């Protein structure tokens, strides 16, 4: 089961999203992936920023992985 602490908002056909997920998989064992277009709230909040990584609802990074920020959250 995915660690619901970490959630990635993506969009179908987004090459940057695919790269983001591949890089994140090198750092995190588990995370949930959600289509930003699946609901209006997500689309309004993150639609122009995908990919977006959140942890417990707070944005960690978007566009590119912030490895130091993710590492800090893993230690917590």
Describe this structure in words.
The protein has a single domain, classed as Glutaredoxin (3-Layer(aba) Sandwich), CATH 3.40.30. Helices cover 38% and strands 24% of the residues. It has three helices and four strands. Strands 2-1-3-4 form a four-stranded mixed sheet, covered by helices on one side.
Topology summary:
Elements: E1 6-10, H1 15-27, E2 32-35, H2 40-46, E3 52-55, E4 58-62, H3 67-75
Parallel strand pairs: 1-2
Antiparallel strand pairs: 1-3, 3-4
Along the chain, the helix and strand elements come as EHEHEEH
SS element count, helices = 3
Helix content: 25-40%
Main sheet specs: 4 strands, mixed
Q: What portion of residues belong to β-strands?
A: 15-25%
What is the name of the CATH class?
A: Alpha Beta
Number of separate strands: 4
Shape: globular
End-to-end gap: 20 Å
Could you tell me the CATH topology label.
Glutaredoxin
Mean pLDDT: 92
CATH architecture classification: 3-Layer(aba) Sandwich
Runs in which pLDDT lies below 50 for 5 or more consecutive residues are none
Q: In angstroms, what is the radius of gyration? A: 11 Å
- Which homologous superfamily in CATH is the superfamily? Glutaredoxin
Class based on secondary structure composition and strand pairing: alpha+beta
Give, in spatial order, the strands making up the sheet with the most strands: 2-1-3-4
What number of domains?
1
State the gist of this model.
This protein has 76 residues and is of the alpha+beta class. The chain has three helices and four strands.
